[in-house]
Automatic annotation (TrEMBL):
Record's subcellular location: Membrane
GO cellular component: membrane
UniProt xrefs under PANTHER family: ACYL-MALONYL CONDENSING ENZYME-RELATED (PTHR22911), SOLUTE CARRIER FAMILY 35 MEMBER G1 (PTHR22911:SF6)
Name listed for the protein in its UniProt record: Putative integral membrane protein (Sam)
Naturally occurring in which organism (per UniProt): uncultured marine group II/III euryarchaeote AD1000_55_C01
Lineage start: Archaea, Methanobacteriati, Methanobacteriota, environmental samples
The UniProt record lists the keyword Ribonucleoprotein: no
Transmembrane spans: 12-35, 41-62, 74-92, 98-117, 124-142, 154-171, 183-200, 212-232, 239-256, 268-287
Membrane topology per record: Multi-pass membrane protein
Keyword list, A-Z: Membrane, Transmembrane, Transmembrane helix
Ranges of residues in domain EamA: 14-143, 154-282
Origin: domain of life: Archaea
Length: 295
């Protein structure tokens, strides 16, 4: 396929790719929740990451793309905070409703708005400040609906959003030194290395259904990344980022239909405040800061 075909503007194609990516990520979240009953978080991380590492290595080899690390310090930090975010997030998925977990994990762009050097180097506009405050009001409704009694498992999902924000910022820094393929591969490889000691002893005790679900988690994560990457090639980044919140809808749908979960009124209001603020925020952030991904 010609390069011009890959990079030409097509909003309709961008939406379709983002729907595909959101469906993949939503399915991944549902599979993580289902497998959390049959396997611990280390096993989920190891198999998911191994699937992605193998696929990316094969892709790099077929295209002659180097996986060399040029900025070792930043790559290490990206892998460390990304793995921490994934541990917290997958643990939360096994304990709280999917819709609640995904919504809180999608606070990462809001933390980026607070922590990013590009934003802090400038004067934060009143509009961005208002959106961040609004979103954090939504967080309070979900994490502490009774204003005094905090849901500790919800804090795990919120923590994953916080660490994911650092991961996004380190990925931005790596854009000038390392290829995207290298960043994805080494994060996956580091996640395998960080989980193998805890997970390996139980690998051969898994039943075929659980193992298939674990592999499906890796495929879902990879498919989600492909969908988002293709979407960003087809339309304006800020416009595309707004559609990334479809993952919240897909995950919540799985929660209702597959797991019989329900959300409280506070969860719904809090979720709308977070998602609404996040969508508005991607149009107000400086160019290049809009993209989001799964850790």
């Amino acid at each position: 396929m010609a390069e011009s075909e890959l990079t030409s503007e097509s909003p309709r194609a961008a939406v379709l790719w983002m729907i595909f990516g959101s469906f993949c990520f939503g399915t991944m979240n549902a599979l993580v929740k289902w497998t959390s009953v049959h396997a611990d978080v280390w096993m989920i991380i190891m198999v998911r990451s191994a699937v992605i590492a193998f696929a990316v290595a094969a892709f790099a080899a077929s295209r002659g793309i180097s996986l060399r690390i040029n900025n070792r310090r930043t790559m290490f930090l990206r892998c460390a905070v990304g793995l921490t975010a994934m541990i917290l997030y997958f643990t939360a998925l096994g304990r709280i409703p999917i819709g609640q977990a995904v919504t809180l994990q999608y606070t990462a762009p809001l933390f980026v708005a607070l922590l990013s050097g590009k934003v802090l180097a400038e004067r934060v506009s009143a509009g961005i400040a208002f959106l961040v405050v609004t979103a954090f009001a939504g967080i309070v409704l979900i994490v502490s609906p009774e204003l005094g009694k905090v849901e500790p498992d919800a804090l795990l999902a919120l923590g994953s959003g916080f660490f994911a924000a650092f991961a996004y910022m380190y990925v931005r820094e790596l854009r000038t030194t390392d290829s995207p393929t290298s960043v994805v591969f080494w994060f996956a490889a580091a996640s395998v290395a960080g989980s193998v000691l805890q997970a390996a002893p139980d690998l051969f005790s898994l039943d075929s259904k659980t193992l298939a679900a674990l592999v499906g988690i890796g495929i879902g994560a990879g498919g989600g990344q492909v969908g988002i990457t293709m979407a960003y090639q087809k339309a304006n980044a800020a416009w595309v980022s707004a559609f990334s919140y479809l993952t919240v809808i897909v995950a919540t749908f799985y929660g209702f239909t597959v797991f019989g979960e329900t959300l409280s009124t506070a969860d719904w209001i809090g979720g709308l405040l977070i998602v609404g603020s996040g969508v508005a925020l991607v149009f107000m952030m400086p160019a290049g800061d809009e993209k989001t991904s799964q850790h």
